[in-house]
Structure formats: structure tokens, C-alpha cells
Fold:
Amino acid sequence: MKAVSVEEAVARIPNGATVMVGGFMGVGTPERLLDELVRQRKSELSIISNDAAVPGKGVGKLFDAALVSTLTASHIGLNPNVQKQMMANKVAVNLVPQGTLVERIRAGGCGLGGILTPTGVGTLVEEGKRQIDIDGKNFLLETALRSDFALIHAFLADYLGNLAYALTARNFNPVMAMAADTVIVTAENIVPVCVIAPDHVVTPAPLVDYLITG
Amino acid sequence: MDAQSIIARRVARELRAGNLVNLGIGIPTLVANFVPSELKVFFQSENGLIGTGPMPEQGMAHPHLTDAGGRPISALPGACVFDSAMSFGLIRGGHVDITVLGGLQVDAEGHLANWMIPGKMVPGMGGAMDLVTGAKRVIVAMQHAAKGKSKIVQKCALPLTSSRPVDLVVTDMAVIGFSGGTITLLETAPGVTVAEVMAVTEAELFIPANVPEMRI
Structure:
């Protein structure tokens, strides 16, 4: 893990990168990293996120600044900007059932090629996907998702990079922290090693590449 | 009593002690208001919490404690939190006893459509497809008709949420079930006749000899 400034961390993200962003309706989202992405005008981003949040909040900020070319998410209904950009063919939106989305990311982080899920069988979601019969029940083959970067927000980070989360701000964060080549973390509190009890560490330090300290 | 309260009160009567229950956004959220305090039910919020409590008092909201719509909630004593993979493991894995969801259409086979209107509204399915596919019991809580058009249709015209049929539909006019694969009128709302329900229901309902009035 390397301690860096927010400017330094975001400077490493090239235009056109695939970026996972933790958070759920802007809760548990690394807002400082998103603000810096906007300030440095990183464009043509492929974003993987549970939802599109709302304008002015969470990943919503990236759409306000028109920096996104592709969004993979389960829900965009509360962000009218995304709806407009989708209808105008400025953003390609891949809608994925939420449980499938998180499990595809989990698979990507765990070295699996994909998962078999009953969710989506018999709906529009099954189009173009392989179906596999297991003991008489149909499952969709959903492939694993990985990204170049994961932007993670934790409640506590220690000097090594061990992370703990707070309440419903945990959501996709620990799953995404497994599934990207480079993991960048903001934390509300940076604490000495051992302040987070070993039993309470959710994301182990070796997964974290950059911790924002300035 | 207004339509939403009728629906929410009637759905609340389906909950049993110890149930793990997931309430969707809209009318389903109101169900929690009508659960008697002595009935201990676990409410799950799919953004990662079991033990959802009511909205906190003014000034007590915590930015890290919200429902799936991002609104502030509280956590009851004994609550626990988990990540989204665990949350949907609970949902898809059949650990949720009851899910209550809103609907756009339900058809005679019990299929639910509730996540998009092609060309008009594409909010996305969120967790709805996993909930309908995985919960032990699926209850739809919705108005019987919208703009004079029946939401209980012979066949869903809108894209389906799941191929798995729902178990119960509770509207402001009726309770409808699907046992044995037949769409059946189980109860009517107070002051509503069977003929009135049939008149605003597009699907062909089976009407048993005795259709009691909802107790709410």
C-alpha cells in the first residue's frame, strides 16, 4: 500500500479506463475521488456501480460532467441525467440485476470465470446468454466482471491498508476491492495498526494499492 | 381509509413472528407501519442490513445508515450489517421468507412486471429480479388499476421481472392468489363487491363460492 494525495491517485487513471465505484445511492462512495476525476476531466470512462445515484451525488457527479461512455449498473431510475444521456445515445447502459452484478464482481475478484444464477431466466436479461440445466433447473451463465481501477470508501483504514466499513456504507465496497487491478481507497479515519481488531478487518491490507492521505 | 393504507394493512397480516422480510420501495415500505409491535419480524434492507427500524428523529440521521432508496433509517437492537454479496446471497438463496414488491402488471399466471416500460421508463430492475426469483414467498402490493386500466391482466405486456410466479397480490380492492396455478379471488376490500372487482379486472378470475371481506 502506498499513501498518496488524491491528485496523485487520480492522475494514474487514464481516459477510457474501466472503473468500479463503491457505494449505494451515494452512500459509501469515495466522493473525493469522484470530485478529482471531474476536476482532472478524465473522460470516456466505463463505470461499474450499483446505481447512478442522483445528480450532484456519488457517481451522479461523473454524469453531470458527461465523463462516462458506458455504465454497468442495476438501477438508474433516480438520476434523470443518465436517462437523458442514455436516450441520446451518449451513454451505453448495461442493466444487470443487483444480485447478479455483485456476484459477477465477486467472481471476478475470486478467480472464477462466471456464475450460474436463476435470476433473469425467462426475462429480457437472458438474451444472448448461455443457459445451463443443473438437475432440471435452468441457470444463466453470467460472466465475471473485473476492472482497471476500483474506487473504495471505508470508515477506517489503518497504516497498512486494512479496512473496515460503517453500517450500510459497506455495500459493494469490499467486493469491488477484490476485483480491480488497482485499488484506491479513501477512508473517514486513518488509524494506527491494531486499532481495527483483526476480527473486524473486512478488506485485508494486501488488496489496497493506494490510500488517500492528503 | 385510503387505498395505500388498505393495501399495507392487509399485507402486514401476512407476516409471522421470526420472518425475514424485504419490503420494496413505495406502498410496500408502508407495511412496516402496520406490524404490531409485539410481532417480532426482521426487516432486511438490500443495501446491507437486517434490523431496519423507523426513520430517525430529526437531527439523528446518520449518513452511513440508509434504506435502499438512500433515505435515512434507524437500526433496531440486534441489527446486523453485511456487504451486497451477502445481502443477495440471503435473497437468492431462499433465506428471505417474504418479499413485498410494487407492481406495474400481474397476469393470470402470476407473472409480475415491475421494472420497465419500454420507450418510456427504464429505471432498471435493481434487486427486484433476485427477490422474485429467490424469496420463499412473493407478495405484490399495488393499486388494482392505474388511470382506469386494470393492472391484473390476462398476460403481461410489459417485460417480466421473473419467470417465477408470485404468491399473492394485495390491492385496494382485492386479495388474489394463484394456488394450483389458477388466478383466484380470495378476498374483497371492505365495501367492494365481487362484481365490482370483476368489472375492473382484465384477467379472468376464478370466483370461489365464498369470497370473504378483507380483515384489516
